Amino acid sequence: METDGKGTAGADATRPHVAIIGKGALGLLQAEFCVRRLGPDSVEFVMDEGRLARHAHETYRVNGQERAFKTVGPADARPADLAIVAVKSLALEGALPILESVLTPDTPIISLLNGIRSEGVIAKRYGEGRVVGCVAQGMDAMRFGAELTFTKHGRLIVGALPHTSPDMAARAEQVLAAAGIPYEHSDDIVCRMWTKLMLNDGINQTCCAFGSTYGEVLSDRTGEQFRCLVAAMRETRVVAAAEGVDVPEGSLTELAESMGQLAPDGMPSMAQDRIAGRPTELDEFAGEVCRRARAHGILVPTNEWLYQRIREIEKGYARKGDA
């Protein structure tokens, strides 16, 4: 089932309140949906006091339209009907204590983080029953400073993990529908998470390693960059199979075709990190695939190369700073 957020589930209930931890492109995009449907009081960003002092009164432009999203510290956070974790993976551990400030016994949690590890990290602290599997897919949102732009809003794919409470999973979908956040239900969210990892290992890492836009990677299907993308994805699929997750070969082809719909001059978050000189989420992509591949005795040379190449790029940030 897919909905544009206009489904009836939860729409007649008390207006839900959504808390978001993480004010990057994905977090801002979900907040924009909430504001459009339910108004500015329906959503708030929650952050530690240090970040709050810098970001509480920021005004953003979302596709050219000015927005001021409510931002509070943990002490002032409201109990949430849904908690969305949207930080980068390097900030996840620091976000966990903040997350506690918005939780009630009935609050489901979804994570928009890339990779396949964050759900387990959150569940270890707050329990497996309330963590609902989620994949953010199809959006091309980019944030540079106070500017958020997107041409494709994409959707969240959600579903119960093996130990998710059915009530929590249903509640998460009800809130997403009522808040106007586009989503799709999945009966096999674990496979969808691995499929998204396969996508990120391909396009995210290739754009970062080559310093390219979507169009530059995808325009030449016989070129080095496109071959790198496909090889990294196929290696990830092999590792998934060794982990007991069957990602159909057809999914790889479908993803390659769907990428052609992204804005040609856009780029994924990892390539944006390279431009901004920020640490990347490399360990969640090639790092995770290579670790699991070694455990199964599987060769993943493209992901190994991408890992080494992007690490060298990151080291270059420090050299530029010393110059």
Give a verbal description of the structure:
With 323 residues, the chain is an alpha/beta fold. It has two domains: 2-186, NAD(P)-binding Rossmann-like Domain (Rossmann fold); 191-322, N-(1-d-carboxylethyl)-l-norvaline Dehydrogenase, domain 2. Helices cover 47% and strands 15% of the residues. The chain contains twelve helices and 13 strands. The protein has helices at 25-38, 49-55, 92-100, 118-126, 166-179, 189-210, 214-218, 224-242, 249-259, 269-276, 286-296, 301-322; strands spanning 2-3, 18-21, 43-46, 60-62, 65-67, 71-72, 82-85, 109-111, 131-139, 142-144, 147-149, 153-159, 183-185. The strands form two sheets. A nine-stranded mixed beta sheet has the order 1-13-12-9-8-7-2-3-6. β8 (109-111), α4 and β9 (131-139) form a beta-alpha-beta unit. α8 (224-242) packs across α11 (286-296). The longest helix is centred in the middle third of the chain and has 22 residues, at 189-210. The protein is globular, with a radius of gyration of 19 Å. Mean pLDDT is 89; it is low at 4-13.
Q: Give the number of DSSP strands.
A: 13
The strand order across the widest sheet is 1-13-12-9-8-7-2-3-6
Kindly report how far apart the N and C termini lie.
54 Å
Radius of gyration: 19 Å
Largest sheet: number of strands, sense, barrel closure? 9 strands, mixed
Q: How large is the share of residues in beta strands?
A: 15-25%
